[in-house]
Write a structure and sequence with these properties.
about 450 residues, Nucleotidyltransferase, domain 5, five-stranded mixed sheet, 18 strands, globular
């Protein structure tokens, strides 16, 4: 694969929009060449609520990233979240025509396509179909059925569903900002790619991404995604509570939360007081840090309990579903002081803060390894992965053969080497993205 393949992740969040441009270096790590961020004005709880403002914010972030890196952006990988996202479990099977042939990719594709025909509620669309384990004839718990014999191929699927209109609105904003849409990915999956290690996914782990408008959850066990959920509140509701509880403006509430906020009230003494300038000629307000952390604690507790309910619904308390690696917290909200201790206290599970620096090049800017960039890094990784499947190397291996080989022989060699590399199957998701592109083109 060439080293200069560039990809762009665009994280359209509730508080900020981030455009991140990067490529892989020779050690297969990600080198971020430019990053741009803009305040997100047209997004509420992960869903676009004002198209014009969102387009402006996207353009602002992209322009900044372009001027920092000197690279022109044409296509982006976008994340999708929001309270309209839900996931369900479904099992399906196909009966194969010829049980004497081994199972191949086409059989799995047939099975996945069959799941795509599931009837959804009106206005909903399937975003991802993720196979979990397969069953061939009566043999269960097969991770990889390709190459096995069998007449009946069955699988359990994790199906992620979202609202058509929300997905189209995001597509519309990206296109109107003058960009192509190479892929849409569920944000918790992108964040998971950026901060979780393979060992954690095997052992069982819950990733909690606390964003501004939503809290995303992704649960992995035995290396496979088992459950996803988007809970429709995040850091912004904490800020709102501080604003209401202390009668101050939002900007001050946000600053208070970041500078002095703590999720653990016992930490602060009654005597610690912070003074906030009053609005235009009014008296300054004095707020005790203990009261501030009580407000934060109450709301954070609610968010964590919501998430913990989802973890229990997945089956964490069963022997088979136990999440040995516990919880990984990421997203901007994970930077709140003493949050990790509170999470451990409420859930009784081990927790750590997830930084997206595992896949970044060693000399990356420290700013990038902040948990608030986890989704952007994950989307960028997704874009780079997608491009790396091009069968470029085939031609080189052939051309290195003896030049003396006759022309016909060269053609035979090419045929031999090129045969195993099938054209990369268009996943349903790419089909869906292409369909979305066509829809947007016709909508002009």
């Amino acid at each position: 694969m060439e080293n200069n393949k560039i990809a762009v992740g665009l994280d359209i969040g509730t508080t900020k929009i981030v455009a991140m441009i990067g490529r892989k270096n020779e050690y297969n790590k990600i080198e971020v060449v430019g990053i741009g961020k803009a305040k997100s004005l047209g997004v509420k709880r992960g869903v676009v609520s004002n198209i014009t403002q969102t387009i402006q914010s996207i353009q602002q972030a992209v322009d900044e990233a372009q001027s920092v890196s000197g690279v022109a952006i044409d296509e982006v990988v976008v994340g999708i979240a929001g309270q309209h996202i839900r996931s369900l479990h479904h099992s399906d099977y196909i009966t194969r025509n010829n049980a004497d042939e081994v199972i191949d990719e086409n059989d799995i594709e047939d099975l996945v396509n069959q799941v795509h025909k599931l009837v959804m509620l009106p206005g909903e669309e399937i975003i991802h179909v993720l196979p979990q384990e397969f069953k061939v004839d009566s043999q269960a718990d097969i991770k990889e059925p390709i190459g096995m014999y069998g007449g009946r191929l069955e699988a359990n699927f994790h199906v992620v569903v979202g609202q058509v209109s929300s997905i189209r609105n995001i597509g519309r904003c990206v296109k109107s900002a003058g960009l192509g849409l190479s892929e849409i990915t569920l944000e918790p999956l992108a964040s998971a790619a950026a901060v979780l290690s393979q060992e954690e996914k095997e052992a069982g782990v819950a990733l909690i991404d606390i964003g501004g408008g939503t809290t995303d959850l992704a649960i992995f066990k035995d290396g496979i995604i088992r459950h996803t959920a988007v809970i429709p509140f995040g850091g912004n509701v904490i800020t709102d509570d501080i604003k209401e509880g202390c009668s101050i403006i939002e900007k001050q509430a946000e600053l208070l939360k970041i500078k002095f906020g703590s999720a653990w009230p016992g930490e602060n003494k009654e005597t610690e007081i912070v003074s906030i300038p009053g609005l235009r000629g009014r008296e300054p307000k004095e707020i005790t840090l203990k009261n501030l952390s009580k407000v934060i604690h109450a709301r954070v507790q609610e968010i964590i309990e919501h998430v913990y309910l989802e973890i229990k619904n997945y089956g964490h308390e069963t022997a088979k579903g136990k999440l040995i690696a516990g919880i990984v917290l990421t997203g901007g909200g994970a930077q709140l002081k003493h949050l990790r201790q509170l999470v451990e206290y409420i859930t009784g599970m081990d927790a750590r803060i997830g930084f997206p620096n595992e896949h970044l090049a060693g000399d990356s800017d420290d700013v990038l390894s902040s948990p608030s960039y986890a989704t952007a890094v994950g989307l960028l990784m997704e874009g780079l992965e997608k491009g790396s499947n091009e069968p470029e190397a085939v031609i080189e291996t052939v051309t290195e053969k003896e030049v003396a080989i006759e022309e016909t022989e060269i053609q035979e060699e090419v045929a031999k080497v090129a045969k195993p590399i099938k054209p990369k199957k268009v996943s349903f998701f790419e089909k869906f993205t292409n369909g979305l592109k066509d829809f947007l083109d016709n909508a002009e």
